[in-house]
Amino acid sequence: MAQRTEALKLRDDELFITRSFDAPLSIVWRMWQEPEHMIRWWGPEGFTVTDLSSDFRPGGAWRVGMTSSMFPKSWSSGEYLEIEPQKRIVLSFAWDDDSGETVPTTITVQFEERAGRTTQHFHQTPFTSVASRDSHVGGWNSLFNKEEQYAAALAKGIQLPQLT
Which family does it belong to (predicted)? Predict the structure, then answer.
């Protein structure tokens, strides 16, 4: 099982989460790069992605629609700002319409591999308030739980259906 790390709070307007996965970097990178993988793990636990489009290149747009038994369809979207293969992804993120706070933030995800394990460093900023930042901690950690489960399965050669 991958080691879990609690979210670190830096400034009031930023969030930083580090997670380690029992999977090589090539697998974790593909999970972010390829929509057919991303659709299987994106979104907090209990949510199912119903729509996903991703033009994985600098300047390319992405958009995700997801739903759960407790919430109506939620939409988030953004643009890939920078991509350094197998090292770093920088993207904008905002909730669409009434799905949540619509002020865009910037997400930077950095990757490193050691001994066949991948460490992922996630940074999101700026938030408009501490409450907004704190409301994202649980959602991202829940999403990373699904990412961890999917990465471990792929590393073992198991193809999983979409995780909820």
Answer: Belongs to the AHA1 family.
Phi, psi angle pair for 126, to nearest 5°: -95, 145
Give 52: exposed, middle or buried? Use CB within 10 Å, 0-12, 13-18, 19+. middle
User: Domains (ranges, CATH) in the chain?
Assistant: 8-155 (3.30.530.20)
CA atoms of 105 and 95, how far apart (whole Å): 10
Write out pLDDT tens, residues 34-74: 999 999 999 999 999 999 999 999 999 999 999 999 888 99
Q: Does residue 24 have a cis bond before it (omega within 30 degrees)?
A: no
Q: pTM higher than 0.85, yes or no?
A: yes
Instruction: List own/partner pairs for 24-27 with CB under 8 A and 24 or more apart.
Output: 24/113, 24/116, 24/117, 24/118, 24/155, 25/86, 25/111, 25/112, 25/113, 25/118, 26/86, 27/118, 27/151, 27/154, 27/155
Give the total residue count for the chain. Answer: 164
How many whole angstroms separate alpha carbon 23 and alpha carbon 96? 32
